[in-house]
């Protein structure tokens, strides 16, 4: 793609987005093309319908929640900046970033904390900062097959919440959530190589 | 072997296996040849370039056996382990092909080798490796399919696994394909389905047999190696060759690893850092495969065979001994990331799944068909077609990974809890699921698992949620039948045992029958002058009320062990609990009183419960309430009035421990004594006895609360007898005298004989009046009296 620079110029606010998300030029360009491909009517933004058109998301148990995560604060449209911002969570973590980062700046979007926060928000629908037992139950219901009965599911939920819950409030706060996943290699599990 | 990790890192593994081995082989061979050209290798070693290439190919293979043995000790992090181990597995194909190709070239003579032969060689690499994998997959499919149908012949399952895996090996060998790859793919492919299909015992059998066989095979191979080393007719020493080989393999391996890692890191998500590379290159141990291959060389074609053998032996010894021993300190010194053996938590499992879905979704959004996309597709295909075909129906129905983890965690908790001597029911938050329908086979029930695990206590895992399953219903039906047919045990404590509300007439009829049987037996035993009267009132306490809500299957085991207190009534207790959807924190065995009370109320609620058992009078209920109140003191309990029993049951573990079934059983012994003694009472005394019983029924005394009175209980019956049995003193005292100890023995052994509640009741107040002089049996009594604290609670 020889005329990369000219394409890049087409992206509005490209520098700002780059700084915010940390994507490379090539990745941003790829994302922009994808954005345009999804935006069938060339509105300049994506609506829920556009994202729902992606067939594979319909068979994904968490598809709807992911779509919702693109539309924070109840808005109905997402522009390219927002699109890139959400996807930036999945950028692989660079070792160099961690060292040379200016501590005064906000954490990059793809830091471990932010990745976990993104996942946490997928669970916590009402945004109260805690995953209540009910919310956990809903997620489990989505993810577990139909063969598991409701009672079994309740048991699983209880146990799950209980495992993570330390202060005994019956809900999993973000810190507890983080703690329960401290052994997991989040940087690997929540990154997509292509977005480097 | 963790298959998920294996496939996640497949790219790296394949690179190292194929490219790495080829690189190693060529460079080592060429370097050795160069060494010979430089004259450092004695000319008596007659070997040309091809010979050295052949030697290089067989010496460059990393050996899976050695790697596994060493890395298992070292516990490096999983990624590193799987890369090295996977490489050692997959490079077998490359080694075999290289070896064969070079061997045939050598046989043909270097002059005759043509370009097409090289091409053929490369083509054969693909054929051998892919063919071997295909053979393995075919056998995996066969194995999974056959194990689907072995429900009735469980015993052949381990046999099937061994035979088919070995058949895969043999078939690949026959076709000159890579046998190791075949076996590996067979294992990888069938693991998921076979694990679901075969029974728990078979799984254990297979696992440990394999480990044993593997150990044996390893030992034999290394023994052979050692013996060959000593037998000097088999080898010839050349220092230059040996030292050169050692140096080159180390050097070129390190170089190869560095180069490949650099390339791979461009593509990997989590790069392999320098320390990983050091461990990888240092961990490339050669082993038995190299030795076997070198022995197979044809001396006529390869004149330098003996030198090669000596070199191989030295190399193998060096890598295994020196490298193997020093890798652990090296790992520690370099502070390699070690594997953390954390227990799998439900949270992690769940979130891992979530992340998988998220990633797949994001990949879709980005429009990139990456690894996760294909993985997702494969999982869907597997779920729809393969699993249905290859997995047993019952296993398939409830096949769910999250459920699996949850289930395993619960079992683990239960086992560890029991091992600590605790009581399963009372651990807070311990929620053992009832058996899901998948485990319709008896041996996979939790109770059986516990037994298998060797926990001493035959636990009554009636705990917690009773998920309705087909099995539960079967059990319920069975219990119902039993309840209908078995003799109803008499109520031990009027207060607590509200459950067994046998109607008067039924009770009388039963009493008569049992009494007659008992008298007969007693007479016989008297004749033999043995004072052991074995009361065979060992029927389990069946649940009288047909609690349609379903008796938990644990009921059966419960009755066996706990008998008195536990018994199916616990089911009843558990059931409302389950239906209330609240996981009971501690259940069951604790307070019969509380239990019974609730059961009582339960029964009252249940219209379908056998009316016969609905006890008649309020008096009884009233008494029960009294005792339950007694019970309530000091215990955290919920509302007593209403049925929800589980909440009534005090959750404190210490209480539960106090109420350990076996202890309570002993406590109840005293009660048994009292009840059984009435049986000794001759028929003519029976009416008098019964009168006193009825007189006591109206008593609303909480004698239970007074342990002292209870401790007097044992002697009491004697006293009672004496008052009531003016005649037959000769026989009776003897019988009664002999009775308590024998009964104690009998009762202890059975722990199910139920005492008569009315009798106990009457005993208790009477106790107060009687003095302790009747405590004639003395020590025999006293010591099980004391354990009556449990009864006192009631």
Automatic annotation (TrEMBL), chain A:
Intracellular or extracellular location(s): Cell membrane; Cytoplasm; Nucleus
Keywords from the named record? Calcium, Cell membrane, Cytoplasm, Lipoprotein, Membrane, Metal-binding, Myristate, Nucleus, Phosphoprotein, Protein transport, Repeat, Transport
- Does the keyword Membrane belong to this entry? yes
- What protein family does this chain belong to? Belongs to the calcineurin regulatory subunit family. CHP subfamily.
One GO biological process term: positive regulation of calcineurin-NFAT signaling cascade
The Gene Ontology CC terms held by the record are: cytosol; nucleolus; nucleoplasm; plasma membrane
**Official protein name in the record:** Calcineurin B homologous protein 2
UniProtKB/TrEMBL annotation, chain B:
Q: Which GO terms describe its cellular component?
A: plasma membrane; recycling endosome membrane
Alphabetical list of Pfam families matching this protein:
Na_H_Exchanger
Gene Ontology biological process? regulation of intracellular pH; sodium ion import across plasma membrane
Q: How does it sit in the membrane?
A: Multi-pass membrane protein
Q: Where in the cell is it found?
A: Cell membrane; Recycling endosome membrane
Instruction: Identify the stretch(es) annotated as Disordered.
Output: 567-589, 699-762
Q: Specify whether Cytoplasm is a keyword of the entry.
A: no
| Chain intervals with Polar residues compositional bias | 752-762
Gene Ontology molecular function terms on file: potassium:proton antiporter activity; sodium:proton antiporter activity
Q: Which UniProt keywords apply?
A: Antiport, Cell membrane, Endosome, Ion transport, Membrane, Sodium, Sodium transport, Transmembrane, Transmembrane helix, Transport
Q: Which residues cross the membrane?
A: 12-35, 47-68, 80-101, 122-146, 166-188, 241-263, 275-295, 307-327
Q: Which InterPro entries match?
A: Cation/H_exchanger_CPA1 (IPR018422), Cation/H_exchanger_TM (IPR006153), Na/H_exchanger_3/5 (IPR018410), NaH_exchanger (IPR004709)
Q: Give the principal location in a single coarse category.
A: membrane
Specify the Cation/H+ exchanger transmembrane domain's residue ranges: 1-333
UniProt record similarity statement: Belongs to the monovalent cation:proton antiporter 1 (CPA1) transporter (TC 2.A.36) family.
Its protein name is Sodium/hydrogen exchanger
């Amino acid at each position: 793609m020889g005329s990369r620079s000219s394409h890049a110029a087409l992206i509005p606010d490209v520098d700002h987005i780059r700084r915010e998300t940390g994507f490379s030029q090539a990745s941003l360009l790829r994302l922009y093309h994808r954005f345009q491909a999804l935006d069938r009517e060339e509105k300049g933004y994506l609506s829920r319908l556009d994202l729902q058109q992606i067939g594979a998301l319909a068979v994904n148990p968490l598809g709807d929640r992911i779509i919702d995560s693109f539309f924070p604060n109840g808005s109905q449209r997402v522009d390219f900046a927002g699109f890139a911002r959400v996807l930036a969570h999945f950028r692989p973590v660079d070792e160099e970033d961690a060292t040379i980062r200016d501590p005064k700046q906000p954490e990059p979007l793809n830091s471990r904390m932010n990745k976990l926060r993104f996942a946490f928000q997928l669970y916590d629908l009402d945004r109260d900062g805690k995953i209540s037992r009910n919310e956990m139950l809903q997620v489990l219901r989505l993810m577990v097959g139909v063969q598991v009965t409701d009672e079994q599911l309740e048991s699983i939920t209880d146990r799950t919440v209980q495992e993570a819950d330390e202060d005994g409030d019956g809900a999993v706060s973000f810190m507890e959530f983080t703690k329960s996943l401290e052994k997991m290699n989040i940087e690997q599990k929540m990154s997509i190589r292509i977005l480097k | 072997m963790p298959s998920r990790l294996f496939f996640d890192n497949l790219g790296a593994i394949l690179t190292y296996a194929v490219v790495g081995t080829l690189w190693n082989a060529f460079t080592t061979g060429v370097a050795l040849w160069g060494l010979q050209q430089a004259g450092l290798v004695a000319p008596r070693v007659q070997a040309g370039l091809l010979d050295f290439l052949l030697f290089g190919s067989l010496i460059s293979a990393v050996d899976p056996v050695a790697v596994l043995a060493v890395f298992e000790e070292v516990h490096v992090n999983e990624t590193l382990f799987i890369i090295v181990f996977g490489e050692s597995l997959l490079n077998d194909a490359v080694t075999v092909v290289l070896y064969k190709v070079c061997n045939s070239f050598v046989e043909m003579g270097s002059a005759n080798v043509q370009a097409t032969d090289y091409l053929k060689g490369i083509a054969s690499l693909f054929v051998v490796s892919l063919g071997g994998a295909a053979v393995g997959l075919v056998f995996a499919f066969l194995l999974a399919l056959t194990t689907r149908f072995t429900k009735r012949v469980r015993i052949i399952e381990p046999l099937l696994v061994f035979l088919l895996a070995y058949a895969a090996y043999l078939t690949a060998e026959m076709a000159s394909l890579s046998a190791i790859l075949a076996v590996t793919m067979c294992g990888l492919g069938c693991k998921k389905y076979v694990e679901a299909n075969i029974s728990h015992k078979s799984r254990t059998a297979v696992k440990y047999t394999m480990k044993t066989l593997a150990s044996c095979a390893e030992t034999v191979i290394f023994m052979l190696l050692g013996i060959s080393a000593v037998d000097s007719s088999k080898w010839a020493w050349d220092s230059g060759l040996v030292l050169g080989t050692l140096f080159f393999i180390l050097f070129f391996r390190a170089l190869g690893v560095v180069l490949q890692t650099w390339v791979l890191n461009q593509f990997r998500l989590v790069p392999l850092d320098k320390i990983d590379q050091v461990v990888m290159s240092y961990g490339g141990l050669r082993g038995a495969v190299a030795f076997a291959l070198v022995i197979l060389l044809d001396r006529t074609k390869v004149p330098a065979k003996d030198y090669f053998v000596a070199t191989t032996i030295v190399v193998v010894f060096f890598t295994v001994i020196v490298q193997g021993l020093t890798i652990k300190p090296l790992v520690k010194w370099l502070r390699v990331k070690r594997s953390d053996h954390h227990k799998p938590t439900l949270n992690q499992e769940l979130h891992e799944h979530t992340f998988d879905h998220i990633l797949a979704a994001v990949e879709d959004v980005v429009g990139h068909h990456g690894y996760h996309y294909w993985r997702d597709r494969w999982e869907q295909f597997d779920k729809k077609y393969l699993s249905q075909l290859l997995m047993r129906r019952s296993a398939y129905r409830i096949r769910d990974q999250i459920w699996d983890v949850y289930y395993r965690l619960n079992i683990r908790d239960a086992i560890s809890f029991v091992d600590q001597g605790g009581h399963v029911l009372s651990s807070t938050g311990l929620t053992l699921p009832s058996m899901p329908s998948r485990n319709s086979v008896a041996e996979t029930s939790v109770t059986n698992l516990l037994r298998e695990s060797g926990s001493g206590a035959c636990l009554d895992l009636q705990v917690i949620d009773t998920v309705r399953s087909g099995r539960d219903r079967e059990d319920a039906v069975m219990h119902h039948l039993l309840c209908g047919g078995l003799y109803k045990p008499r109520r031990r404590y009027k207060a607590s045992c509200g459950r067994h509300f046998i109607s008067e007439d039924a009770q009388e009829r039963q009493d008569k029958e049992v009494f007659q049987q008992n008298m007969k037996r007693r007479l016989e035993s008297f004749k033999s002058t043995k004072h052991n009267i074995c009361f065979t009132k060992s029927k389990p306490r069946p649940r009288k009320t047909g609690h349609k809500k379903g008796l938990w299957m644990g009921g059966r085991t419960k009755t066996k062990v706990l008998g008195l207190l536990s018994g199916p009534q616990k089911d009843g207790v558990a059931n409302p609990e389950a239906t209330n959807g609240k996981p009971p924190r501690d259940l069951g065995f604790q307070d019969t009183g509380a239990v019974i009370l609730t059961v009582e109320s339960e029964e009252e609620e249940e219209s379908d419960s056998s009316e016969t058992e609905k006890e008649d009078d309020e008096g009884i209920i009233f008494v029960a309430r009294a005792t339950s109140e007694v019970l309530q003191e000091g215990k955290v309990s919920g509302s007593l009035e209403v049925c929800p029993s589980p909440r009534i049951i005090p959750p404190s573990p210490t209480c539960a421990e106090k109420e350990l079934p076996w202890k309570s059983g002993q406590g109840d012994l005293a009660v048994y004594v009292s009840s059984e003694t009435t049986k000794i009472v001759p028929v003519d005394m029976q009416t008098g006895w019964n009168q006193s019983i009825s007189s006591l029924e109206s008593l609303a005394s909480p004698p239970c609360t007074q342990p002292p009175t209870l401790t007097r209980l044992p002697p009491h019956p004697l006293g009672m007898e004496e008052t009531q049995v003016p005649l037959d003193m000769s026989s009776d005292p003897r019988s009664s005298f002999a009775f308590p100890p024998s009964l104690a023995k009998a009762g202890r052994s059975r722990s199910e004989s139920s005492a008569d509640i009315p009798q106990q009741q009457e005993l208790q107040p009477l106790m107060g009046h009687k003095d302790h002089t009747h405590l004639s049996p003395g020590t025999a009594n006293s010591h099980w009296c004391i354990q009556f604290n449990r009864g006192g609670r009631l």
